Amino acid sequence: MSLLIPKSYWRQILLMIIVMGSLSFVFSLPPFGQNPDYHNFADQREFFNISNFFDVASSLTFLLIGIAGLIFCFKNDLGSMQNAWMVLFIGVSLVSIGSAHYHSDPNNLTLLWDRLPMTIGFIGLLIAILGEYISKQFGWLIIPSLLTGFFTVTYWQWFDDLRFYIWVQTISLLIIPVVMILYRSRYSHQWMLALALLFYALAKITELNDKRIFDLSGQLLSGHTVKHLLAAAGCLT
Fold first, then answer.
1. Which residues pair with 47 in a beta bridge?
2. What DSSP character marks residue 81?
3. Which of 1, 14, 68, 98 makes the best surface tag, with the fewest CB within 10 Å?
4. What is the pLDDT of residues 66-101, one digit of tens each?
5. HSE toward the beta carbon, residue 100, CA cutoff 13 A
């Protein structure tokens, strides 16, 4: 009897190592909460009686892209992962509302309504990719995955501990490119997904350089506003 594990199983084992290893790493970290300085965005200009106007206004791009994505889902047969893709674009649409609400009055409570829809979007994308690249059986995970995502956000709100929320967001960004490398897509436009991930990576970089970009642009646009536009472009891709 051969003790060799079939080649196809190695990919699944690697994915499990990434998931369980990253979760174990998160458990090994001490609890950490939301830094209050996070709410202190570079561009706090007010227009039309709207505080932080450009961060609020740029949030609305998610609504346009989310609605466009939902219309596409309704008009096209996306197969067994149709529900997951719809969850993604529902999340993107709700991000516009949650983000605009948060940026009009940045604090931990309003941030909850920004992070919940972002979690919906991440979960929808992750399940859709797993279903498209590996097996349509991943589709049944959409509900328990959403519940897990909701738990991580509410857990942060209750206990001021961001570990699990960050893990859910990070594991999505880790798993998706690994799946793209390990598995062959049934579709010919997977380069667009890679482009979307690039847009999101750039969005995170601009978010971390909020004030620097604001100063370099002559206080025209902040890094966080640019982050919204890049993340929305990633969703459009």
1. 50
2. G
3. 1
4. 999 999 888 887 778 889 999 999 999 999 999 999
5. 14
